Amino acid sequence: MPATRPLHLAAEIGGPPRYDAASHVALARLAEGGALDFVTLRDSFARPGLDAAAVLARVAPETARVGLVPTLTTTHTEPFHVSSAVATLDWVSRGRAGWHADVSTTEAEARLFGRRPAAPAPALWREAGEVADVVARLWDSWEDDAEIRSVATGRFVDRDKLHHIDFEGSTFSVKGPAIVPRPPQGRPVTVIDATTTPAGRAAARHADVVYVRASSPEQAAALRAEVHRSAARHGRDPQAVRVLVALTVDLGDAETAPEPGLESGPQLAGHGTYFRGGPVDLAELITQWHRAGAVDGFHLTPLSPARDLERIVNGTVALLQHRSLFRTFYPGGTLREHLGLTRPANRYAAPRTEAAS
């Protein structure tokens, strides 16, 4: 049966480290011109480069609609700081922020901080799930109308509408409330790559967008169904989880060299993570998989961002739009609206509202 859900597309705009805003702004604007749901920017304590959240905060005023999703590593970052950084990005972008939760597993990265040794991936992902939980609670710790901003009375905030979250986790505790008002989206979008089993558990509980890797539409459909079943087991609505196939794409040819630093890209393999061909070929793959109802969309990582993203937008996306498979304009102003996700109610405001009624 043909897919009835909208097709969602996102793209990575990272590459060799650059230290000027112009390159990131140009790529984000290019993606916005193609009406992509969001762009991502990888980050890691192990690679050189600027802080992804700070870079996209700089990109935000130069764009108007495209979602902005930096990677934040939860292992050596305080949950309070994660919450503040993403909430700030959501305010700066007027509701277009998300965050890709990741973990740091290496001893070399642990030595950079010196607080604790490296831990096994399952333990780190359990902690990452707790971070995602805390971050959402901190975003809810301010009710939407907590700000008064009354010059006459000198009151900035209604203290009765700020809430302690009093969270006790396995490796940290957070009292709250946040220091940033509740974001425009209520809760910015949480993204998790569910390729590994430990990450998949965290994704089922906390992610709005889940990445999977597949080599066929049948495999993708099976993975999507498993994500939905896992989400349902945790009391979540499976239809509120978007499952995207993560795909590294090489749209170059023999006469086009990749960017400096990307000459030795991944080899063509049967793991379903790497695509090499032309923009039309990529459009055919996306069309077949989406029409089969296998996926909600794709997260595309261009092998050579400046070259391949242009071919994705002006070639692949243009063809999908011509076939009426992908939108030509944004349906709203926030990332949640792009993804067809509702704005969550504040968990702390509801009890008092019901009591008052």
Give your account of this protein's structure.
By secondary structure, the protein is α/β, with parallel strands linked by helices. It has eleven helices and 13 strands. The strands form three sheets. An eight-stranded parallel barrel has the order 1-2-3-4-9-10-11-13, surrounded by seven helices. It is globular and about 60 Å long.
How much β-strand is present in the residues? 15-25%
Number of E strands = 13
Rg over CA atoms, rounded to whole Å, is 20 Å
Estimated structural class: alpha/beta
Helix fraction by DSSP (H/I, runs of at least 4): 25-40%
Unreliable residue runs: 261-271, 353-357
Q: Biggest sheet, strands in spatial order?
A: 1-2-3-4-9-10-11-13
Q: What characterizes the major β-sheet?
A: 8 strands, parallel, barrel
Outline: globular
* Chain oligomer state: single chain
Mean pLDDT: 90
| Helix segment tally | 11
Order of helices and strands: EHEHEHEHHEEEEEHEHEEHEHHH
- State the end-to-end distance: 46 Å
